[in-house]
Amino acid sequence: MGLIQQFSAYSNWRAELSKNIQALRDWLSAAELGDAETDQRLLTLVERLRGDKLTVAFVAEFSRGKSELINALFFGDYGQRILPSSSGRTTMCPTELEYEPGKPSQIELLPIETRGTSGTVSEFKRVRQEWTVEPLDAESADAMHQTLRRVGEQKHVTREQAEALGFELDDTGENGLRPNADGTVEIPAWRHAVINFPHPLLQQGLVVLDTPGLNAIGAEPELTLSLLPNAHAVLFILAADTGVTHSDLEVWRNHVLNASQRGRLVVLNKIDGLWDGLRTEADINVEIQKQVKTCASILEVDPAHVFPVSAQKALVGKIHHSDSLVARSRIGALEEALSLDIIPAKRQIVTESVRGEATDVAERVRELLESRVSGFSDQLDELKELRGKNQGVIRYMMLKVKAEKEEFEQSLQQYYAVRSVFSTLTNKLFQHLGMDALREDTRRTREAMLACTFSRGLKGAMAKFFSEVRTRMDRSVSEITEISAMLATMYKRFGVEHGLTLETPDTFSLAAYQLEIDRLEASFNTHFNMLAIITRERRSLTQQFFETVAGQVRRTFENLNRDIEHWLRAVMSPLESHVREHQSQLKRRLESVKRINEATDNLEDRISDLTQSRSVLASQLEDLLGIRDRMQDCLTAGGAMEGGEDIAEAA
Description:
Radius of gyration: 31 Å
Distance between the termini: 17 Å
Low-confidence stretches: 639-651
Shape: elongated
Strand content: 5-15%
Strand order of the largest sheet: 4-3-7-2-8-1-9-10-11
Number of helices: 23
Structural class: alpha/beta
């Protein structure tokens, strides 16, 4: 199965999974077995699946054939190039290709001057009036090609203006932009571009991130700190005629290795330069393998992760339907790596997320229904034993059930005490991890940086910020451990004393968030090295630190707070549900025996009613298990469905 077919199958699987979760949500509502929190959990999961994206980022220095590779991989069916691709610099700003339903086909361009403000690209995405918008004629490949050339537009500014916008300058051109003879500097006209059009792959959730060369990447730390780390695959492109240059190596070390730990592939492009008509195929293959091993050695990667291709010949072959040219371009091996490694990895992430959410909901409702069925069965057994008994026995049974109810209500005092301790520990936890605490750390750090006189003090203030963040996480571990241990004890106690079927809740791990803070600190050390601190103006450096690094730490804490709040609700909810259910069952048992004792209800009628109620519950349980099993089958299938034909026709 090729890349397009594999992605289509993944998209169909995701839609089927969403359908199963929605079926569970609808059934819970119809059966009146859900609550507002459960409904919101499932709704959030459905919306997350519908908006799920798979991002593939392309990173390279200029003139490595990056845009041509994107054309060859994804847009060969259009009959010509979509993204501009020619010698020299064609992509001057980070460019995202995506499809957002309900949004017209268009290109949105963020002016480079916005770098002089305090907003990040992510923040400007919420302020659309700052963007220049131009319609895109998705029906015409020629018109699209002409419009998309705007991502390569440049402008001339003074040295002072270029430096104020964050560009590094170097008279040799090796470590920054090289000023022209007249003293002006050629910079990108745009800071960021977002292209929205209904290509079949984009419609199914693919996002393509095309990045500019080293100098532009270095001027936009958000790329390395946010966009690239969030990509599911990062393709690093080299040119076969140049190999690994000094600037290639700098991009690799500073902007790929630090940003992404998953889905990294190296593409050795332009192998058609070896097709000179003088060498045999055997000689060409030997030369290609030699270059692959050399590049792999320099980048310290497995040679199996280096893919030699000719993007240009692959695109030509696809446009002219030449299978032999496509095969000779070797694009197939790269497509296979993307389809067999990246997409299954993404599918696994989605599977784990759904299994942890929807399956938990289904299991909680199953436990509740089984508890109700068991309770009705016990009540029926009690009432059946009363057949032919005198009033004294019935009164004895009533007193027995009443005693059980009183005993359970006394034990609830311990439950309420646990709730009180739980609330106290939760408050302590958010004293460490809450957004108010982080804002206070941020405020102190900003004041310390602005008050610094020497560069070493600036570096120390920024490093202390990370130290305080890490300390907050370390201190919160004890509260999380105490909450988990306390609830585990309470779950076990209620299970033993009152026969409640309760599984010990999972604890919460901070490991992923701690690793993210480590990654951000590594990126901080790269972007805010001593040379940058010495050469940059203090206020400008402070602003950039809080726009980029500190901004990413804030987003990490926002995600952490959201996940912890969800965990805290999830660990208490099963216990609360079972306590309420057990109270209701005891109340129903006592009421039944009382009514029979007072001769206001016929014993046989009551037995008949309970039998019917138990039958309804058993039917509900059967329905739930069917929905759960279908969802589990979908998760296990993991995208085995075929979907290539649909997308091939749509393309």
